[in-house]
Amino acid sequence: MVKVLVNAGVRNFPEDVAETLKPHAEVVYMSPSEEGYLDVLSESEAIILGTGVINAEFLDAAPKLGLAARFGVGYDNVDVAECSRRGIHVTHTPDVLSSAVADLTLGLILSLMRGIVDANTYARVEWSLRRSRLPFGRDMEGMTFGIVGLGRIGVEVARRAHGFGMKIVYSDVVKRPDVERELGAEFSGFEDLLKESDIVSIHVPLLPSTRHLIGRKELRLMKPTAVIINTSRGLTIDQEALVEALEEGRIAGAGLDVFEEEPLLSESGLTRMSNVVLTPHIGSATIETRRRMAEVCAENVKAFLEGKTPPNLVPEQRS
Ligand code: NAD
């Protein structure tokens, strides 16, 4: 029977969703550190992949593979060109996670603007002692919100920011007149966006052109009162430059779900700063969204096993 390997990094793939594949295939859950993994990989025709890298070396160990179904929308961990050369389909899970990531993005912003993390600790310990007071927060209404990458997630973030009464500016390689009409969003040059925004939120995919899109030079353009939010990929920001800018007070704060290296090392400069809110790459980690992502992966695997074109091929493989 055809083997489908559910790889490490896909937590709690719902049993009933896996069941839908069983008439077509044997589903095996395994992580690369487990004994016998390479044997299973060598027999697998489809893989559902969370973290981990799919490159030429990996593919050499998977000679029967016909589909790499990424459990997520970003696929910077998959060498798509190499997969295409070998006739392997690559799919991902667009749209179904956009709202969850947008919710977290606004959560990070609210935490920063209202000091919710510190206030939580204060309410539990300091409040009754009356020794100190919390600093005031900031009003989001009326702020300028800069979105870098107004794609699926960027648009959901813009809708929420609009609901908070913020002015939306965006920079992208494509214009979005539809969003301009819907939300009054204004297209902006990248540098102008950095100079004008009170909040800069990054939503680009990780590509050679977006690696360290935000570095020392870009951070210097931001207002000292502005904050930066990243729920895209850690490598879109030069993390060392970010730590430096935060330490020197050149920007006011950061809300980060993604990091250059994950898990984030506890000795990172970021973990010592009170004007930084950190989450451990949980953008899509809600019960409902993870279930939808599993369903989309299963739909792609099923289509592939039935000899049809999987519905969610990555853009590079769509003709
Ligand atoms: P998308 O492709 O719909 O949107 C990306 C946007 O970025 C597009 O509009 C594109 O034109 C734009 N873009 C590309 N290069 C650019 C550049 N150099 N400058 C400005 N804009 C540029 O993707 P999406 O579904 O919105 O997802 C965005 C990214 O979010 C994913 O690639 C993934 O890395 C990340 N993500 C993170 C989490 C998380 O858990 N934190 C979850 C899901 C997605």
Task: Describe this structure as you would to a colleague.
The mean pLDDT is 96. The chain is α/β, with parallel strands linked by helices. The two termini are 31 Å apart. Strands 8-7-6-9-10-11-12 form a seven-stranded parallel sheet, sandwiched between helices. Strand 6, helix 7 and strand 7 (167-171) form a beta-alpha-beta unit. It has two domains: 3-95 and 287-317, NAD(P)-binding Rossmann-like Domain (Rossmann fold), CATH 3.40.50.720; 98-278, Rossmann fold (3-Layer(aba) Sandwich), CATH 3.40.50. Helix content is 34%, strand content 15%. The chain has helices at 15-19, 37-43, 56-60, 80-85, 98-114, 116-124, 152-163, 177-183, 190-196, 216-221, 239-247, 287-305, and strands at 3-6, 26-29, 44-49, 67-70, 89-91, 144-148, 167-171, 186-187, 199-202, 227-230, 253-256, 276-278. Bound molecules: nicotinamide-adenine-dinucleotide. The site of nicotinamide-adenine-dinucleotide (NAD) has 33 residues, from helix 5 and helix 7.
Based on the structure, what is the oligomeric state of the protein chains?
Answer: single chain
Percentage of residues in DSSP E strands: 15-25%
The CATH architecture designation of the largest domain is: 3-Layer(aba) Sandwich
* Number of E strands: 12
Give the CATH H-level superfamily of the largest domain: NAD(P)-binding Rossmann-like Domain
What is the end-to-end distance? 31 Å
Overall tally of domains: 2
What class would the helix/strand composition place it in? alpha/beta
**What helical percentage do the residues reach?**
25-40%
Instruction: Report the average pLDDT across residues.
Output: 96
> What is the third-level CATH name, the topology of the largest domain?
Rossmann fold
SSE sequence, one letter per element: EHEHEHEHEHHEHEHEHEHEHEEH
The CATH class of the largest domain: Alpha Beta
